[in-house]
Specification:
- Belongs to the cation diffusion facilitator (CDF) transporter (TC 2.A.4) family. SLC30A subfamily.
- By secondary structure, the chain is mostly helical.
- The chain has two domains: 204 residues, Alpha-lytic protease prodomain-like; 70 residues, Alpha-Beta Plaits (2-Layer Sandwich), CATH 3.30.70.
- The chain is 65% helix and 9% strand.
- It contains eight helices and three strands.
- A three-stranded mixed β-sheet has the order 1-2-3, with helices on one face.
- Helix 2 packs antiparallel against helix 3, helix 2 runs antiparallel to helix 5 and helix 3 packs parallel to helix 5.
- The longest helix has 35 residues.
- The two termini are 20 Å apart.
- The relative contact order is 0.13.
């Protein structure tokens, strides 16, 4: 029996992770630094759009710091209790980030509803200046993160937070411009609510995908049954594949376990090597555990034969 785990996670992957870790930290510093200024500006001008964006930036700063810490933990070696290491922390943080965005969006909609009922005066000029500065900071943070690994859920969650901030800044600028031109204060809560609705859609996508991963669901684009049929058809000596499981730790590290029923007389080691090679080359799954079998499955009574 060969448990042959592919432990060679390439240097490219490690360097990519280190780069992502640095990008997230820079974005956290940019976001946190401007969040304080925007909160003060929102209170001074009376703008819900600025306060909503400042609140979002506060949560984003925390989320980005958590994302940075997740990348930091992922670099640690596996332990006797955490045998796969800490990569799954990134997925957990992505899931938490999605839920946080939902909570912020609900708060923004709630505040917008009250502001619509009782509009209050807003200082359009200072609001416009702060909105423009916030937009510049968010664009800078977005480009810092955009160069990272966008297949990684943790990085996608960080980018999503920054996009939410960017939209908030655009809404604040638009609201300030309309207020300066027309004096119509309700535009501030209206645009804030629209930004919240856009965030809901993106947050749902992140929560759904990271939740699926936490439930050990098969990664997108990988069909377990198709993979099993491919191995049966293309690996010499394999009669059947069963008890197959496919999952991912963080959206990039895909893994699989399977039982392979082999033809009598076939070299089990050679068959296992061929299975692992095809899984890596064709299906991009580098970490595979294969249990070879002849005649019957070890998980079934000896008298029950495989076909």
């Amino acid at each position: 029996m060969d448990h042959g785990h592919a432990h060679d996670h390439s240097g490219h992957g490690h360097s990519h992770g280190a780069g992502d870790k640095t990008r997230v930290l820079v974005a956290a510093c940019l976001t946190g630094g401007f969040m304080v200024a925007e909160a003060i500006g929102g209170l001074a001008t009376g703008s819900l759009a600025l306060l909503a964006d400042a609140g979002h930036m506060l949560s984003d700063t925390v989320a980005l710091v958590l994302a940075w810490y997740a990348f930091h933990l992922a670099g640690r070696a596996a332990t006797t209790r955490l045998t796969y290491g800490f990569d799954r922390v990134k997925t957990l943080v992505a899931y938490t980030n999605g839920l946080t965005i939902f909570a912020i969006g609900i708060w923004i909609v709630y505040e917008a509803w009250h502001r619509m009922a009782e509009p209050s005066p807003i200082l359009g000029g200072p609001m416009l200046v702060i909105g423009v500065l916030g937009l510049l900071v968010n664009v800078a943070a977005f480009f810092v993160l955009h160069g990272g690994d966008r297949e990684n859920l943790n990085m996608r969650g960080a980018i999503l937070h920054v996009i939410g901030d960017l939209l908030g800044s655009v809404a604040a600028i638009a609201a300030a411009g309309i207020i300066l031109l027309t004096g119509w204060y309700p535009i501030d809560p209206i645009l804030s609510a629209l930004v919240a609705l856009l965030l809901f859609r993106s947050a749902w996508s992140l929560v759904r995908e990271s939740g699926h991963m936490l439930l050990e669901g098969a990664p997108s684009g990988l069909d377990r049954d198709d993979i099993a049929r491919d191995i049966e058809a293309n690996v010499k000596g394999v009669l059947g594949i069963h008890h197959m499981h496919v999952w991912s730790l963080d959206g990039t590290r895909n893994m699989a376990t399977l039982h392979a029923c082999l033809r009598e007389g076939i070299n089990a080691h050679a068959a296992i090597c061929d299975i692992k090679l095809r899984m890596a080359k064709v299906h991009h799954i580098d970490h595979v555990t294969v249990e070879p079998e002849f005649g019957h499955c070890a998980d079934r009574p000896a008298g029950v034969h495989l076909h």
